[in-house]
Amino acid sequence: MNYYIFTLLLLILNTPKLHAQRLLPNQKGLEIKTGITDKGKIENSYFINLAITVNTKNGNYHIWGIEYTYKNHFYNNIRIPQETYTAEGGYSFFLLGDTQRNITLNFGITGVGGYESINRGKDQLQDGVKLISKDHFIYGVGGRLTFETYLSDRLVFLLQGRSKILWGTDLQQIRPSAGLGLRINF
Fold first, then answer.
1. What's phi and psi for 120, nearest 5 deg?
2. Is 80 exceeded by the pLDDT of residue 23?
3. Model pTM?
């Protein structure tokens, strides 16, 4: 009897480990990210992004997302809010990662379009100063570098640095940001 138990234990211990399959083609993911868009405090400049990803081959994936960005500008102790609503679509390329895809580094490029509101459409400040900058439709391109690590087979933690170049705006044309988020694959 001990011989059979010992043989069974040896078979179990020598069985190769089974790993979950990650980054399968056509696997979809829902991700939410937040972060800062400026060096200041988070209450003065932040973004919230909701995106859907669809995996393709070799760890690459398509990205479709919407984003809300808020930034305060100050003039004589008066806050002038800048709100940006954008939609983006693009592609992310796998750059580096371990063999089991537990940790990956991806580079993505996207097209961006949306609307920018300055001082919620009011062109007059409380002290009578008139704003020259107006609300506009904006468009441009974005680039991102994303560090991804799997917390479980379906949950992915994201660290992201990115920049957008926007046209049609009266304000900052190049807009860098950094953030973190979670993706749930289903």
1. 55, 35
2. no
3. 0.83
